[in-house]
Specification:
This protein is mostly helical. It contains eleven helices and four strands. The N and C termini lie far apart (132 Å).
Length: 240
């Protein structure tokens, strides 16, 4: 296979090589002066084929919401000796335990994390936030409105994940979505609305029937009074 780079391929490779983090195809196209994001994606695929054919130590991987040039895992032993790389990336067992709980149960409150671990986790959460792996994603609706913790984009980039679905055993360990519950609630609300509508129709029909009966009674009373008036007029004529 031809492993030579065209000018466009070389520009994309240079952009990814010096980037501090993952870049979207739109950003790559902008920095490498390409036509559009589609062309950037095609060049990335060509670069990956060329890197694999030349047995390069690098490959371009999709992480988070973009692409990043990374080294193959088999070179990590030698790379860990450079610039204390291993010490910078290493997490203590308590921090890794806390991070795992946040990863698989997010968004999650500190109280829920501590209920799983059985110990205080404020310091571990602070360390993870200082490293940019965990952030505050909002507040819970429970009493006191506690903070909700979730992972960051940097976490996905460091661990080489495209999204949370790429986590090991994600379908077993991550909580199931609440869509079925919402659907059931919506169906119940629809049934309640249908029932209320039918009750309103019944009430309206009952009111209409009562109004019809009242009108008929009024008409009967009017006709009876007219009949009495006609009898009185006949009696007056006879008397005259």
């Amino acid at each position: 296979m031809d492993t030579r780079r065209s000018l466009k391929m070389a520009k994309v490779e240079a952009v990814l090589f010096v980037a501090d983090g993952a870049l979207s195809t739109r950003k790559i196209a902008q920095l490498a002066t390409l036509a559009n994001a589609k062309e950037a994606k095609e060049l990335i695929d060509q670069l990956n084929d060329a890197l694999a054919a030349s047995q390069s130590a690098f490959h371009i991987k999709r992480v988070a919401t973009g692409y990043r040039m990374m080294t193959h895992p088999q070179f990590s032993f030698w790379l860990n000796k450079l610039h204390q790389r291993q010490a910078a990336l290493k997490l203590s067992p308590p921090a890794m335990e806390t991070l795992a709980i946040v990863v698989y149960r997010q968004p999650i409150t500190r109280a829920d994390i501590e209920s799983v671990r059985g110990v205080q986790s404020a310091e571990m959460l602070k360390q993870l936030m200082d490293r940019g792996l965990v952030r505050i994603g909002g507040k819970d609706d429970s009493l006191g409105r506690p903070f909700l913790y979730e992972t960051t984009r940097k976490f996905l980039e460091i661990f080489g994940l495209k999204n949370l679905e790429d986590l090991p055993m994600a379908n077993m360990l991550r909580p199931a979505p609440e869509e079925p519950v919402k659907a059931a609630i919506e169906e119940t609300e629809d049934e309640t609305e249908d029932t209320s509508e039918s009750e309103e129709v019944d009430e309206l029909s009952t009111d209409a029937e009562e109004q019809t009966e009242e009108i008929s009674e009024v008409e009967e009373s009017d006709s009876f009074e007219d009949y009495e008036d006609e009898d009185s007029e006949d009696e007056d004529l006879e008397a005259a």
